[in-house]
Write a structure and sequence with these properties.
Spore Coat Polysaccharide Biosynthesis Protein SpsA, Chain A; 2 domains; alpha/beta; 13 strands; nine-stranded mixed β-sheet; two-stranded antiparallel ribbon
Length: 297
């Protein structure tokens, strides 16, 4: 498996007005934009070919991963090798490609636009809003499950039952492998009392290329959009079509939704505390702040 697809066409309305002119994926998490962490995750799992499914106003994402010759020259002239290495590292993470979605017709539509680039190969989809803590990698485990069983693999996470209506929910059957399940059905954003479980689909997928032909036949579903969940249901119901059905990896690590303000702030604070340069000074300041009067916070 060599290729990753990252949809980044969303408007980021939850972060207005900041995202009026800056793509939400470029909002900084400590000293890197959120999308940097996602691409690094793909690269760490051996996926060196990354395709962005982009929208209007997202050129800054491509620019970030491209060379900045003038900046490189300025840093070289100053002898600032440390910062020069930082930006060189970014440009060498992966081979970056981009295609424009045009209209936001759903995640299924976005994934379908990758068909020509991906071809007849299994591939990964990483949602740019989902930041997986680097200490808790899951993508390589998903690839391993695909390599062993075939078919497609989705990432599942237990959420409070009252929150399941915000996600796609999975009905599952246990396997002999811990935290690997057979997926028997999927429901997109079900009412709480109709959810098959509290296992929510989060933004990591390893997909069989058969999904492309299924997406071509998938009618718009919830919200008038082409839902990837609906295509996966077809792969579940007709396993031979998708090369072996759908399995799930239950993720029990740290994950942040950088499209949500509260979760975004948690990501910034958590990763700042882990930073070897920032953490030692930031931690006592934060403890002092939290120990102060409510009016001081």
């Amino acid at each position: 498996m060599r290729k990753a697809v990252i949809p980044v066409a969303g408007l980021g309305t939850r972060f207005l007005p900041a995202t009026k002119s800056v793509p939400k994926e470029m909002l900084p998490v400590v000293d890197r934009p959120a999308i940097d962490y996602v691409v690094r995750e793909a690269a760490s799992a051996g996926l060196a070919d990354v395709l962005f499914i982009a929208g209007r106003g997202k050129n800054a994402i491509e620019d970030y991963f491209d060379r900045a010759v003038e900046l490189e020259q300025v840093l070289a002239d100053k002898g600032d090798t440390e910062r020069l290495q930082l930006i060189d590292e970014v440009t060498s993470l992966a081979r970056i490609h981009s295609v424009r979605q045009g209209a936001a017709l759903g995640l299924g539509h976005a994934v379908g636009m990758a068909a020509e680039h991906v071809g007849n190969e299994p591939f990964a989809v990483l949602l740019g809003d989902d930041l997986i803590d680097g200490r808790d990698p899951v993508l390589q485990q998903m690839i391993d499950v695909r390599n062993e069983y075939g078919g497609s693999v989705i990432c599942l996470m237990e959420v409070p039952p009252e929150s399941i209506s915000l996600y796609g929910a999975a009905a599952v059957r246990a396997t002999d492998t811990n935290d690997v399940v057979d997926v028997t059905d999927l429901v997109e954003k079900p009412p709480v009392n109709e959810a098959p479980s509290n296992l929510a689909i989060i933004g990591r997928y390893v997909l069989d290329p058969a999904v492309f032909s299924v997406l071509q036949e998938t009618e718009p579903g919830r919200g008038g959009e082409i839902q990837l969940t609906d295509a996966l249901r077809t792969l579940i119901s007709v396993p031979a079509v998708g090369g072996g059905g759908v399995r799930g990896v239950v993720f029990r690590g740290r994950r942040y939704d950088t499209g949500d303000k509260q979760s975004y702030l948690r990501a910034v604070v958590t990763l700042a505390l882990q930073d070897p340069q920032l953490g030692p000074d930031f931690r006592p300041w934060l403890l002092e702040l939290l120990g102060g009067r409510p009016d001081d916070v």
